[in-house]
Amino acid sequence: MKRMFEKRPTASMAVAFVALVAALGGSAALSGKNAVDSGDVKNDSVSSADIPRASPR
Predict the structure, then answer these.
(1) What is the DSSP secondary-structure string of 2-54?
(2) Furthest-apart CA atoms within the chain: distance in Å
(3) Centroid of chain to Cα 15
(4) What is the pLDDT of residues 2-54, one digit of tens each?
(5) How far apart are CA 35 and CA 47, in angstroms?
(6) Cα–Cα separations (whole angstroms), residue 21 to 9, 36, 38
(7) pTM (2 decimals)?
C-alpha cells in the first residue's frame, strides 16, 4: 500500500481532479443566487408554451 503513494501526481491527474471539482461544483452554483424566481419575471410575459414539460414546478 505504501508503494502507491510514493509517486507524485502527474499533471494529467491534476487536470482531471480540477475538471471533476468544476463539474461537481457547477451544478451547485446554478441552484443559488443565479436562479430565476417569480420576482424576476414580468406579469403575462411568459406563457405555458414557453415552459418545457420536463421543467420543475
Answers:
(1) GGGGSSPPPHHHHHHHHHHHHHHHHHHHHTTTT---GGGS-TTS--GGGS-TT
(2) 65
(3) 18
(4) 666 677 889 999 999 989 988 887 666 556 666 677 777 888 787 777 677 76
(5) 19
(6) 16, 25, 31
(7) 0.39
